[in-house]
């Protein structure tokens, strides 16, 4: 196997919780050295989120694999000086504090760019580094709402619900990781100059909103919640089966639609010229949903999926955690990996995406204990043992 594609890249992670650390996780999975700075004592709050094992979140085992942990109180001048020294030797710095926080610590872009002109700085915040809302606090759920997603995730007439995971943060992290790679490429081909990547949570969500804005601009149409359907694209919906399960059926391709109608015994609809294209089907979506729903209601979920698989119509069940863990396809694709908690207990964690044929991502080290790498990283940065003892006494590390 060739060396990891990002081997030799050094990332300094100053963020916490989800968005910034998620971007760093991706880079670490493909070989980057990730040095994570955490506040002494408590560490990253994610260590205490969701379900805990021996006092630490099992989520931590995913979000922080391949990282080194350094305890450093960035509110103190001595720690800020150490962070500047670490930034001098870094290729990438990732942070997701409120805009202005790093500047108050002497760690803003102008300061660090002067020290290390090649540094690439990823800054993730609720509303971005500029604009009238820049100083507002913003979590992923607020970005999901402002970006347009929350309005659509509901049954018509009912309260909009959240997706169920911190999708706004993760989308921001994905866009941030992409921005880092683009900036590194620019640095490579344009003389080594670093730059800032400014990612706003609401913009990462808004970027996923497809035709939402153009439809309003062209037609004055405000897209509304539609439950399990996808307005303007038909037929595609969740259909209840005889055993109470739901089959997700996507019959919206022209050829697929015909095969679906033949499968459910509605050859008349398959041959209807008015349904040959998506525009005609979208206008009669309720009629098509009723026909498919009447068919699925007389069969179990397994029977429905077997029939659709034979007819080569995209369909599937709604997976929960147990379904994922027991599905052979996830394992065949290495999407379920084995890890171990600090006490030796085996645990299954998500695999790595995307999958590169020559330089695939790897899990080279488990998520670190708080401060596990403080001494090694600071020693490498030139901090003496005596200085570390003094810093520890002051609560800086």
Report the CATH C-level class of the largest domain: Alpha Beta
CATH topology of the largest domain: Rossmann fold
Gap between N and C termini: 38 Å
Number of strands: 13
User: What's the architecture of the largest domain, going by CATH?
Assistant: 3-Layer(aba) Sandwich
Short summary:
Helix content is 39%, strand content 14%. It has 19 helices and 13 strands.
Structural summary, described in words:
It is a single chain. The protein is an alpha/beta fold and 397 residues long. It folds into two domains: 10-207 and 332-394, Rossmann fold (3-Layer(aba) Sandwich); 236-317, formyl-coa transferase, domain 3. It contains 19 helices and 13 strands. It has helices at 19-29, 60-63, 77-88, 101-104, 109-115, 140-146, 149-152, 167-189, 201-206, 212-219, 254-263, 267-270, 278-283, 285-296, 301-310, 321-326, 328-332, 374-380, 385-394, and strands at 10-13, 33-38, 52-53, 56-57, 67-71, 92-95, 120-125, 196-200, 236-240, 246-250, 315-317, 336-340, 346-350. The strands form four sheets. It has a six-stranded parallel beta sheet, sandwiched between helices. A three-stranded antiparallel beta sheet has the order 9-10-11, covered by helices on one side. A hairpin with a 5-residue loop joins strand 9 (236-240) and strand 10. Helix 1 crosses helix 8. The longest helix is centred in the middle third of the chain and has 23 residues, at 167-189. The protein is elongated, with a radius of gyration of 25 Å. The protein starts with 9 loop residues before the first strand and ends with a helix. The mean pLDDT is 96.
């Amino acid at each position: 196997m060739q060396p990891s594609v990002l081997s030799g890249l050094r990332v300094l992670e100053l963020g916490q919780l989800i968005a910034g650390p998620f971007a760093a996780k991706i880079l670490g999975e493909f070989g980057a050295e990730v040095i994570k700075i955490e506040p002494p004592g408590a560490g990253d709050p994610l260590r205490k989120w969701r379900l805990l094992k021996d006092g630490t979140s099992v989520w931590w085992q995913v979000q922080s694999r391949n990282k080194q942990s350094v305890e450093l109180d960035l509110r103190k001048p001595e720690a800020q000086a150490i962070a500047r020294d670490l930034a001098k030797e870094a290729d990438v710095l990732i942070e997701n504090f409120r805009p202005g926080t790093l500047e108050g610590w002497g760690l803003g872009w102008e300061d660090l760019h002067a020290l290390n002109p090649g540094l690439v700085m990823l800054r993730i915040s609720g509303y971005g580094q500029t604009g009238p809302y820049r100083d507002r606090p913003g979590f992923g759920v607020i970005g999901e709402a402002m970006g347009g997603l929350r309005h659509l995730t509901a049954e018509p007439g009912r309260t909009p619900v959240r997706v169920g995971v911190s999708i706004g943060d993760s989308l921001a992290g994905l866009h941030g990781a992409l921005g880092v790679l683009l900036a590194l490429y620019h640095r490579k081909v344009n003389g080594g100059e670093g730059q800032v990547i400014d990612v706003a949570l609401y913009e990462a969500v808004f970027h996923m909103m497809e035709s939402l804005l153009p439809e309003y601009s062209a037609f004055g149409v405000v897209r509304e919640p539609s439950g399990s359907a996808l307005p303007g694209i038909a037929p595609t919906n969740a259909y209840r089966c005889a055993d109470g399960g739901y089959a997700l059926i996507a019959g919206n391709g022209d050829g697929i639609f015909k095969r679906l109608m033949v499968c459910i015994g509605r050859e008349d609809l398959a041959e209807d010229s008015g349904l040959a294209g998506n525009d005609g089907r979208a206008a009669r979506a309720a009629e098509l949903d009723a026909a498919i729903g009447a068919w699925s209601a007389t069969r179990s979920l397994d029977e429905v999926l077997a029939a659709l698989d034979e007819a080569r119509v995209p369909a599937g069940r709604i997976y929960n955690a147990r379904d994922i863990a027991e599905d052979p396809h996830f394992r065949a694709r290495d999407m379920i990996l084995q890890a171990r908690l600090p006490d030796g207990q085996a645990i299954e964690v998500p695999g790595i995406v995307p999958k590169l044929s020559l330089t695939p991502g790897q899990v080279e080290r488990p998520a670190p204990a708080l401060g596990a790498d403080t001494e090694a990283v600071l020693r490498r940065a030139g901090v003496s043992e005596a200085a570390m003892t003094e810093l520890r006494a002051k609560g800086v590390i």
